[in-house]
Design goal:
By secondary structure, the chain is an alpha+beta fold. It contains five helices and five strands; from the N terminus they run βαααβββαβα. It has one domain: Aminopeptidase (3-Layer(aba) Sandwich). The chain is globular, with a radius of gyration of 15 Å.
């Protein structure tokens, strides 16, 4: 049976391991190297995830199958200039062998619920431009594009 819940302290090392798998997978995607260098949390990931786990404005979620952690999600909310809150899903990953059974959907639902409970006006998530699987996943979860980031590499 699949489930998603807040991570326990003992599971944070597994989350860091999965976060490294995400970085490895996205590195070869269009925009992946820049995402890893600019947006992704840097090493040491164990420390970064533990710090996030302690924050009241953030949530570290694990996705499980039969009690085994096979995925994770990192979410937080931020206060905008007008005082409203916006939820942000920074990372979500499910091991390739565990995809397609609903773990990712449960992780997203848990992160969205966290943001809704915090009074967020909405929730943002990022998909790399060439990662069609991620884009389709978020669209099935009810997300739509609200902004596109355009980039011009000097090595055109």
């Amino acid at each position: 049976m699949e489930d998603a819940r807040a991570a326990h302290g003992a599971e944070l090392a597994r989350v860091a391991e999965l976060a490294r798998e995400l970085r490895s997978e996205l590195r070869d995607e269009r925009g992946g190297t820049l995402w890893e260098t600019r947006e992704a949390r840097p090493e040491p990931l164990d420390d970064a995830i533990a710090e996030l786990h302690e924050r009241d404005d953030a949530l570290v979620v694990v996705g499980t199958t039969e009690g085994v952690v096979v995925g994770y999600g990192l979410g937080r909310w931020e206060t905008l200039r007008d005082g409203t809150r916006l939820g942000v899903i920074d990372e979500i990953y499910v091991e390739p062998e565990a995809r397609g059974v609903g773990v990712g959907e449960l992780v997203v639902e848990r992160l969205v619920a966290f943001c809704v409970d915090a009074g967020c006006i909405g929730v943002d998530a990022t998909a790399l431009p060439g990662h069609r699987q991620a884009k389709n996943f978020f669209e099935r979860a009810g997300f739509t594009a609200r902004s596109l980031v355009m980039h011009r590499s000097r090595e055109r």
